[in-house]
Amino acid sequence: MTLHTINKTPTESSALNNCLASLSDGDALLLIENGVYAAMPGYAELFTRLPASVQCYLLGEDSSARGLNDLNPDFRSIDYDGFVELSCRYNKVVSWF
Q1: What's the CATH code of the domain at 63?
Q2: 75-78 β-sheet, strand order
């Protein structure tokens, strides 16, 4: 089980597409920094083929700092304590840039 973090928008880098191609059952995806833009409704199609067991999160502080509202409901907003908890829960943390 791996926690994958994305810190770039889908237009800034291919990190999100590369990450999505490598997700496995039981993994989690966490959008941080500019990566939270991927939770906007215009990008929802990117996440339609995720394995059902993949949990999706976003860092609430980062989405608030960017003034983002009305985000993809499949992404659970977490705080920094939640980020630490996820980092401890998963065997590995992979950061995609």
Answers
A1: 3.40.1260.10
A2: 75-78, 55-59, 28-31, 2-6, 92-96
Expressed as residue numbers, the domain containing 51 is 2-96
Q: What is the tally of structural domains in the chain? A: 1
Amino acid of residue 71: L
Sign, CA torsion 71/73/79/85:
negative
pTM above 0.85, yes or no: yes
pLDDT tens track for 68-85 = 999 999 999 999 999 999
Query: Amino acid identity, residue 47?
Result: F
Vertex 93, ends 2 and 80: CA angle to 5°? 110
- From residue 52, alpha-carbon distances to 48, 65, 69, 84 in Å are 10, 30, 25, 23
What digits encode the pLDDT tens for the residues 19-63?
Answer: 999 999 999 999 999 999 999 999 999 999 898 899 999 999 999
